[in-house]
Write the structure tokens for this entry.
Amino acid sequence: MLHEIALPRPFSVQALCESIVRQRNRRLYLHPLSEQSGEGTPCGMWIATDVADHIFYEQKTSSFHQDHIILHEIGHILCGHNVTHLLEEEYPLLADGTADDSLTRQALARTSYTTRQEQEAEIVASLILERATTLQANTLTSTDWRLGAALGAIDHG
């Protein structure tokens, strides 16, 4: 499944989201959570509507952790897990890609993932980060390429 998604170069979670939008032909919105609803509330969540996916992620954490939360929710999408499905008629703010705190609190109360699904999504997030790190490490700048080619370390073909 992971080989079917093209990781953008240079890698960023935002660029990956844009790539997934193109591949799935379905909008994807990212919503930072301004406040947690309390202990036991997830730090991220995926909500699907008829026409779009909405990923909510904890805002009050490091950018690396935010990226990992978003990738975890993308893992749920890619694995086709059961999801909290909302109708846009019930939540009109979702139709234009926005969400408010009351919607967020209602949505977060509706989580229904199994432990197995959580583990799978976590593995997908970790594998995406691992692949992205490997790609970044293997990306040569034009100067690196010219130097490697001059030294015979890189094939000209």
Q: What stands out?
A: The two ends are 30 Å apart (CA to CA). Helices lie at 13-24, 63-79, 92-95, 101-108, 115-138, 142-150.
